[in-house]
Design a protein that fits this description.
Elements: H1 16-25, H2 58-126, H3 132-137, H4 142-213, H5 217-239, H6 253-264, H7 282-292, H8 301-307, E1 309-311, E2 321-324, E3 330-336, E4 339-342, E5 351-354, E6 360-365
Antiparallel strand pairs: 1-6, 2-3, 2-6, 3-4, 4-5
């Protein structure tokens, strides 16, 4: 998961125009070479370390920065697994509830069918136990014989129908029970996967926080500078390819709504597993943004990559989702002019950044 670049809190929560204005103000959306304000590699005199504090070489802090990126990336992958397990659990729980209702209804139907069969057996007992066909043969009244023949045929059909219905209902109940057992097994497996993902998330975040806690204040400041430098260099390299000259798509009506929603979330904290309204993770933000536009999409970045229509980067338009890293572990909402809105990582807030600051896997369109 990439660093948080130029976190911006606009004075009001606007739509696309507000987002673009804010981005321009912080130079995220500038032409190649000026996409981000170039970091000053030379600290000012006032920012120089005091004699009592010795900063480690930049290469050491750069190693820290890369380690932090790795830890937060691992946490993001685990978060996607956690979210997938959570989504599956919701579906499986709903299926179990539906199956339970079918089992109750099936048992009620089976009881009714057994009651009908019991009444038929009791009626046969009251007539001396002779089947209708036997009593028909003993009749010496032709008219009664003909009437009785029709009733016998109807009775036979009804009996066969009752037997078939009883058998089918029993089979259905057996299948419902098997399906419910299968869903319970899946739910239990998902619970274990969810617990394992949660453990990995908390371990990686704790390791990252511990690593940062060991840094002096001036080291943390320099680390932040290195993060901005890395983001600047990556965004500039992406823009220098001339890609913005090829991107001319305009947001759809639904895309504008998704952007408006995401813009209104700027400044809210990243929390893994969260999908609003007070906090978000990366795919929680994008899925809720598109849900607000009337286009529900998968919950996780990996499923968004798998299930939504892929479009070329040069063909993307505001509102599309940019999927990052080879494992599709991060996603952001493209808002135009080379910028994105994203929930970056733990410790950061929903913010505007450069679309090229992380390795792009591809682009997907929710309303294709």
């Amino acid at each position: 998961m990439g660093p948080d670049q130029h976190t911006v809190r606009p004075g009001g929560r606007g739509i696309l125009a507000t987002a673009v204005t804010v981005v321009c103000a912080v130079t995220v959306l500038a032409a190649p070479g000026t996409a981000f304000a170039a970091p000053d590699p030379t600290p000012s005199a006032s920012a120089s370390p005091s004699p009592s504090v010795t900063l480690p070489p930049d290469k050491d802090l750069e190693a820290v920065r890369r380690k932090l990126d790795d830890l937060y990336h691992d946490a993001a992958v685990a978060t996607d697994a956690y979210n997938a397990a959570e989504e599956a659990a919701r579906k499986q729980s709903a299926q179990i509830v539906a199956l339970a209702k079918k089992i109750v209804e099936g048992q009620r139907k089976l009881d009714q069918l057994k009651e009908r069969a019991g009444r038929a057996a009791a009626a046969q007992y009251r007539t001396g136990g002779l089947p209708d066909s036997a009593r028909l043969v003993l009749s010496d009244n032709p008219s009664q014989f003909l009437d009785g023949a029709g009733r016998v045929l109807q009775g036979q059909r009804a009996a066969k129908g009752l037997i078939r219905e009883l058998t089918r209902t029993q089979q259905d109940l057996k299948q419902y029970a098997a399906d419910a057992a299968g869903q319970w097994n899946k739910l239990e497996a998902g619970r274990k996967a969810k617990a394992a993902a949660k453990k990995k998330i908390t371990e990686r975040i704790a390791a990252a926080e511990e690593l940062q806690s060991k840094l002096e204040k001036k080291q943390k400041k320099r680390l932040a500078e290195l993060e901005r430098e890395a983001a600047y260099q990556a965004q500039t390299a992406w823009l220098d390819t001339g890609i913005l000259g090829e991107i001319h798509g305009k947001a759809s009506a639904a895309g504008q709504k998704a952007i408006a929603f995401a813009t209104a979330q700027i400044g809210k904290p990243y929390v893994w597993g969260a999908e609003g309204p007070d906090s978000y993770d990366c795919s929680g933000l994008t899925s809720q943004a598109w849900a607000s536009a009337g286009k529900p999409i998968p919950r996780t970045s990996q499923e968004q990559w798998k299930q939504l229509k892929h479009v070329d980067v040069k063909d993307m338009r505001p509102g599309d989702l940019i999927i990052y890293f080879d494992d599709a572990s991060h996603v952001a909402l493209y808002i135009g002019d080379g910028a994105i809105i994203q929930a970056p990582r733990p410790g950061r807030t929903v913010s505007i950044g450069g679309a090229g600051t992380m390795p792009i896997l591809g682009v997907v369109r929710p309303d294709a």
